[in-house]
Amino acid sequence: QVQLQESGPGLVKPSETLSLTCTVSGDSISSYYWSCIRQPPGRGLEWIGYISYSGSTNYNPSLKSRVTMLVDTSKNQFSLKLSSVSAADTAVYFCARAIVRGWADYFDYWGQGTLVTVSS
Amino acid sequence: DIQMTQSPSSLSASVGDRVTITCRASQSINNYLNWYQQKPGKAPKLLIYAASSLQSGVPSRFSGSGSGTDFTLTISSLQPEDFAAYYCQQSYSTPRTFGQGTKLEIK
Asked: B3-26: per-residue pLDDT in tens?
């Protein structure tokens, strides 16, 4: 059974960088694409981006200038950094596995999510 | 960006009812449409991918249909555990976008 676990600070100050690590267990990270998705409290879902096992990325253009995703196959982890955060970045951040088949893709396994609050 | 619009935004129904949720894309997305269920405080769960393919382990009372711009998720006979929020999501283009959600409540 594939499991994803998010970890990182629950509180980040405005203008600083949000860092999130996603640890994958139950399968190798080297066979899939991996994604980060966020959900502001009481609101809908926003896709942040993808990273492949080889390190190629695809980001949401609305966040692209502030987002960096990296993969560490030796630790079976991938990570998200979001710079220059503001209160608008307060959300539950999810890690997810993406199945990519041709042009179609979908998120079949998700972490439980972690709430990150941006506040001074 | 492709806008995904769900209707209704909320819905009250009873156990045993047949329920349909609609998702409309702002442009054609072929069949690149997925459906997720989310319960309070939990991560979304994949129900349907590629518009009509049932994810492994998901009960057969869930079904999806549609192509182009108009899609539906149908629950044939509501069970108590089905009361949750439902989201559609397109995978046709970047950025991937979700509908605003449909909250299914007990009548």
From this structure: 999 999 999 999 999 999 999 999
| CB of A106 closer than 8 Å to CB of A32 | no
What is the residue whose two structure tokens read 């926003």? Answer: A46
- Return the amino acid letter for B97: T
Residues 6 or more apart in contact with residue A13 via CB below 8 angstroms? A118, A119, A120
Inter-chain CB proximity B50 and A104 less than 8 Å: yes
* pLDDT, tens only, A70-85: 999 999 999 999 999 9
Q: If you average pLDDT over residues A9-35, what whole number do you get? A: 96
A19 close to A9: Cβ distance less than 8 angstroms? yes
Furthest C-alpha separation in chain B? 38
A57-92 burial, b if ≥16 CB within 10 A, otherwise e? Answer: ebbbeebeebbbbebeeeebbbbbebeebeeebbbb
% pLDDT > 90, chain B: 98
Chain B residues with beta carbon closer than 8 angstroms to that of A105: 91, 96
